[in-house]
Amino acid sequence: MRSSQETYMEVAERCHAYQHVVEPNCFSNEAPNCPSCLNCKHFDRDEHCTLDLYDVIARQL
Predict the structure, then answer these.
(1) What are the pLDDT tens digits along the chain (61 aa)?
(2) Domain limits at 11?
(3) Rounded to whole angstroms, what are the CA distances from 19 to 5, 37, 42, 51?
(4) What is the pTM of this model?
(5) How many structural domains comprise the chain?
(6) Phi (first) and psi of residue 49, to 5 degrees
């Protein structure tokens, strides 16, 4: 299930394993250094945390 942009940002800000990855995309309007699950090394293209940390953190919000 896809979450809101705000939720992805809040989870990334609270995640101890967050690692920012910049994918080259000339059409991206992403703010530089803005934490979000969508730009985390551990978040796959299917929008799933490969470390299984998303749900644990999201439940605490």
Answers:
(1) 468 999 999 999 999 999 999 766 545 555 567 899 999 999 998 989 999 999 999 999 9
(2) 1-61
(3) 17, 9, 7, 12
(4) 0.80
(5) 1
(6) -75, 120
